[in-house]
From TrEMBL:
One of its GO terms (cellular component) is membrane. InterPro entries: CD2/SLAM_rcpt, Ig-like_dom_sf, Ig-like_fold. Transmembrane segments: none annotated. Coiled coil: none annotated. Residues 1-16 form the signal peptide. The lineage of its organism: Eukaryota, Metazoa, Chordata, Craniata, Vertebrata. It is found in: Membrane. Keywords: Glycoprotein, Membrane, Signal. It comes from the Eukaryota. Its main location: membrane. It comes from Champsocephalus gunnari. This is Immunoglobulin subtype domain-containing protein. The keyword Kinase does not apply.
């Protein structure tokens, strides 16, 4: 009884001490997992609780999905899809003759598509300054709304679902919307000039000058 207890304590101790290694991959790429110190014995690869490789043979279900090198134990998972996200574990006999587990967590994400930006002045008023612009930037079903004044953008509303981290900011009087996940990022920008008739916009002055020329 005491032996059994201390055994489970050791197992729990081992699994709790080593956090899973995180791996982020873009869809359709691949991930290779290696056995770090050679000398591990009787290793087996599992996906969740499912054996991928057993007695150095790839299970039929995984034949089109993985490459396995029986010499060094390396496992490569190919043509990654969201459905391949999850926990991959290596079960092995370590140098102390104990069965141990090493876990790897894989997250497969799509390439972030180009954000779609829509902006309009909040109030179209020649004499009002500063000019505020509402911006709605959407990426793959997620969106963020911000109000941008002449020096910053403030989030006013956002969608609940968030596969993509969306940020809207100003860079040299250009509104930039950037979307990223853990594997890729993409941005679009739109100039604030011409959207507002503020002090920094020379357009009204030009109109007056031109009128002068025509009259003169
Ligand atoms: C996945 O990658 C392979 C080559 O690595 C390519 O031939 C194929 O077109 C890609 N598929 C998609 C859906 O991107
Ligand atoms: C194991 O062998 C494969 C193919 O021969 C190779 O790509 C991989 O890098 C090797 N793994 C290690 C840890 O050397
Ligand atoms: C890839 O993942 C998507 C989303 O999870 C799923 O609908 C699709 O069936 C998967 N494709 C394959 C080939 O497994
Ligand atoms: C435009 O802004 C000025 C100053 O903020 C304000 O006095 C005026 O009423 C506004 N005009 C309109 C049409 O909103
Ligand atoms: C933004 O507008 C305010 C109010 O008109 C003005 O005081 C400030 O200088 C402006 N800032 C920039 C960076 O243009
Ligand atoms: C425009 O933005 C400024 C600064 O954020 C704010 O004080 C002002 O009330 C806003 N004006 C309108 C019409 O939303
Ligand atoms: C922002 O744009 C998205 C996509 O076009 C739309 O679904 C969403 O309702 C918009 N949000 C607001 C507050 O208008
Ligand atoms: C979200 O995007 C902002 C700006 O690009 C960045 O600073 C932040 O680290 C991102 N957060 C995550 C979780 O990727
Ligand atoms: C990156 O992945 C973690 C999960 O490991 C998730 O919580 C986080 O939101 C992701 N960040 C982005 C920007 O997608
Ligand atoms: C937008 O993306 C491009 C690459 O596509 C990058 O060179 C540029 O620095 C990005 N702009 C900002 C403001 O992040």
């Amino acid at each position: 009884m005491f032996l059994l207890l201390s055994f489970t304590w050791i197992i729990a101790g081992i699994t709790a001490e080593i956090p899973p290694a995180m791996h982020y991959r873009v869809k359709n790429s691949s991930l290779c997992l290696h056995i770090k110190p050679p000398g591990y014995q009787e290793y087996e690869w599992l996906f969740e609780k499912d054996l991928i490789v057993h007695s150095k043979n790839i299970k039929t279900k995984y034949k089109d999905k993985v490459y396995y090198n029986p010499k060094n134990g390396s496992l490569c998972i190919t043509k990654l899809n969201e459905t391949d996200s999850g926990t991959y574990s290596l079960s092995f006999i370590n140098s102390d003759d104990e069965r141990a587990i090493e876990t790897h967590k894989l997250i497969v994400e799509e390439t972030v598509s180009r954000p779609f930006i829509r902006s309009s002045p909040l109030h179209f008023n020649l004499s009002a300054d500063p000019c505020n612009i509402t911006v709605n930037c959407s990426v793959q079903g997620d969106w963020v709304c911000s109000v941008c004044d002449n020096n910053s953008c403030t989030i006013s509303q956002r969608s609940l679902f968030s596969k993509v981290n969306i940020t809207i900011f100003l860079h040299n009087r250009v509104i930039v919307c950037s979307g990223n996940n853990n594997v890729t990022k993409s941005n679009v920008s739109e100039s604030m000039e011409g959207m507002c008739f503020g002090k920094s916009n020379p357009e009204p002055e030009n109109v007056i000058k031109n009128r002068h020329l025509l009259l003169g």
